[in-house]
Amino acid sequence: MVLALGLACLTARQVGVWHDELSLWGRAVQVSSLRPRVRVNYGRALQIADQDTLALQEYQRGIALSFDDRRLPGANLYARLAAETDIATVLIHQQNVQGAWNQLAMVLNTPEWPLFPYAVFHRGVLEAITGQCHAAARDWLLASHEDGTLVTPTMPKICLD
Amino acid sequence: MSRLSFLFFVLALTVLAYASTWRASFVYEDARTIFGNGEVQQHEPWHLLQLRSLSEGSFLLNHMIDGNNPRGYHAVNVAVHCVNGVLVFVLAWAFLEPLGAAVAMTLFLLAPVQTEAVAYISGRTELLSAFGILLACVLAVSPPRAWHLIAIPGVLLAGLLAKETAAVGFLLVPLVCLQQWPTLLKDLRLYGWLPAMAIFGAIVIGLAGLILWPLRHLDPGTVGSERGVLGFLAIQSTAFWRYLPMVVSSYGQTIDHDFDLIPHALGYAALLGIGGLYALAWKARGTLVGFGLAWTMIAVAPRFMIRIPEFLNEHQLYVPMIGIAFGLGAFMQWAIEQWHPVRDWFVAASGHDWFCDDHEAA
């Protein structure tokens, strides 16, 4: 009975970590503070919680950590491009369209991964916002072809009209 | 406290421990599993013969009942975990004395390492595949009936349709049978059943291959391709050893561990240790602790063989945990039995004989 009660307390405490993205990735940052992907995902959690400034800081940390050559080059590249793309999404959220264009153009200029699907997808979002509906549809198709888990969003009203 | 009331006590504790999932939201890949899944969102028809179709079917049922409200999804996860806990108890009861079976069930239901599989909605695939494996094993140790010949492969196949790693069930069921009837292989040969079993095995492996065939396109990804085979095995071994203390401690638990920075020497030492565990499982075959160890090592084997792009995650220890819980239950039972004052105190304090061999009495 003592074993059961002790384990139940530990488990209940750990279950609390799974409450939401912020608690989940906040815990991950505590345990794996040097892991770029963890920083990027914590940044996304902060961004969802409307804490853009803190999110940007986490993305920058993720980018800085992704140059650690003790890690696999592929994993580093993915984390870096994801963080750079996420910075673009913050800029979109802040309605800094030009800044977001420049940021995404930089990501898509990466010779190792010129069609990074997450960046192509968000370029489509920018195109849809600015009324380039056909280009947006093309980019979303391209992004979902590269990564089948990316779901094509609904076209904004400006395109449907 | 009687044995039955202890069982309900542990189940109630499990529900209490996971009660906060009632207010939890979807996290991480749940968005892809639930919102980004056309079948779950009822935009596309659901098909039975596809990878993880039963898990998707269960998410679809959740969606039909309560839409995208995470509560129902979490409640089903906790309920399946509790059912699995009862099945672990029933399976352990076939081999262990009441104390060992109770310890095995308690560890399985309440170990902190299980949190990821249960509190994470996407962990349902692990829960359902474990359900298929456990039910098949319980049927295998129950008094033989003709319909078991259909039911056992049937539930294993159902587990396989929940998650492809349930393929280990096709090895775990024979392991359970050999533990229950040590002379099984000899008897089968005696009666000339071996060819029939070989044909049956071939059919089962064929079906499993059919389910696993879509995995052939799986991208080996960063872990598999850049590290090489030994590097991959070393990092998976490190993860396994890291998660073992989480059976009784939540220290250092997280969704994303950082094994990249582990020194290579440590990784290879961990790999040697894993080799040692396989050797130990073979050496201790026939004993109850050896059975638990063999279960664990068989259940974790796909993680060493299939080079998926991710490290071994905490939730992937759900099925191996059955063997760990069984082994620890058997060990604790043996240890207390050896020390008579503790045994006598234990019986006096609980008011019941937790060491009575009910099977022999029956």
Shape of chain B: globular
Mean pLDDT across residues of chain A = 91
User: What share of residues of chain A is helical?
Assistant: over 70%
SSE order of chain A in H/E notation? Answer: HHHHHHHHH
Strand content of chain B: under 5%
Return residue spans of chain B where pLDDT drops below 50 for at least 5 consecutive residues: 219-224
The helix fraction of chain B, in percent, is 55-70%
Low-confidence segments of chain A, ≥5 residues, pLDDT <50?
A: none
Give the biggest beta sheet of chain A. none
Helical stretch count of chain A?
Answer: 9
Structural class of chain A: mainly alpha
**Termini Cα gap of chain B:** 22 Å
Topology as H/E string of chain B? HHHHHHHHHHHHHHHHH
Features:
heterodimer, A: 161 residues, mainly alpha, B: 362 residues, globular
Describe the overall structure:
The complex is a heterodimer of chains A (161) and B (362). Chain A starts with a helix and ends with a helix. Chain A has 9 helices and no strands. By secondary structure, chain A is mainly alpha-helical. In chain A, 73% of the residues lie in helices and 0% in strands. Chain B has 362 residues and is mostly helical. Chains A and B meet through α1, α2, α3 and α5 of A and α1, α5, α6 and α12 of B.
Structure in a nutshell:
Chain A is mostly helical. Chain A has helices at 2-17, 21-31, 36-48, 52-65, 73-93, 97-108, 117-129, 133-146, 157-160. In chain A, α7 runs antiparallel to α8 (133-146).
Show the helix and strand layout:
The complex is a heterodimer of chains A (161) and B (362).
Chain A (H helix, E strand, L loop, with lengths): L1 H16 L3 H11 L4 H13 L3 H14 L7 H21 L3 H12 L8 H13 L3 H14 L10 H4 L1
Helix pairs in contact in A: 2-3, 3-4, 3-5, 4-5, 5-6, 5-7, 6-7, 7-8
Chain B lengths: L2 H15 L12 H6 L17 H14 L3 H24 L4 H13 L4 H5 L4 H18 L6 H15 L6 H12 L3 H7 L3 H19 L8 H23 L20 H20 L4 H18 L14 H19 L1 H11 L7 H4 L1
Helix pairs in contact in B: 1-4, 1-5, 3-4, 3-8, 4-5, 4-7, 5-15, 7-8, 7-9, 8-11, 9-14, 12-13, 13-14, 14-15
